[in-house]
Amino acid sequence: MTPARGKRDLLSVQDVARDLPALLERASRLKADRRAGRRRHTLEGRTLAMVFEKPSTRTRTSFEVAMSDLGGRALYLSSTDLQLGRGETIADTARVLSRYVDAICYRANSHANVLELARSASVPVINALDNVEHPCQIVADLLTLRERWRRTFRGRRLAWIGDGNNVLHSLLLGAAAVGLDLTAATPEAHRPQRPIVAAAEALAATSGATLRFTTSPEEAARGADALYTDVWVSMGDEAERADRERAFAGYQINDAVLALAAPEAFVLHDLPAHRGQEITDSVLDGPRSAAWDQAENRLHAQKAILELLLPRRRR
Ligand code: CP
Fold first, then answer.
1. For a disulfide at 204, which of 176, 188, 224, 241, Cβ 3.0-4.6 Å?
2. How far is the CA of 5 from the centre of ligand 1 (A)?
């Protein structure tokens, strides 16, 4: 294809902070359409390249099915199969892929790699997870929260229990953008990065969201309307496994922690879960788990994201 002149990337939640209400509304509509058996081919003839340097179940599958449902197609390109794995530069890969496809989603080992691909690509680039952010996950998470809270975040309290990782970074930015109160309980040595916290606080100043930080899972959980956790050892942190398992002992969502939350509170997990570490079987498989809806919502959220970044062609 001929490279577009203007393009829009999704590298951080900050790139769609203002679009979140419309994105969530569109994702809801697309979900209802799919359930009713309606398919709208809004991306007919479009192709998404999916470059993955790390494994994926949900992100890969939801992007691939999203493109198919919208009338387009997706190409899965493992970095080990591309010349990227033999030393071709990220910039050259971006330039070449831009001549074939309409957008590139990229699961990268580092945020610097995502920025480099986006700089050299002439088509939209979507961050499909890196070491700093996981923005597409948070669009699905906000969709899940909004569904359960009857379309409003106002006055609701979300508690994060666990690592100050890429998912928490994007969640802080997303919560701050939509005006949701978030308390993050992390060990002192695993707090979220300061520049992300500063960016989230700037968004919160406009939306009215409150962001709090503690080292106490119990303090975060008390009275919360929803609890959210993630693995103690993210992809790329495997060398720190033993230290992390020691540091995060106690940062678990179990029945006792859930009992501290509001009576109607539910539990999020972006998956995959390490059962028995950050979450127990009884919570993840229990009636207050929203994790399976959350996983499904990746599909509806990806569609809304793709439609936003790949505007319709004029006929
Ligand atoms: N939550 C998430 O990104 O899952 P995958 O790693 O399976 O894509």
1. 176
2. 32
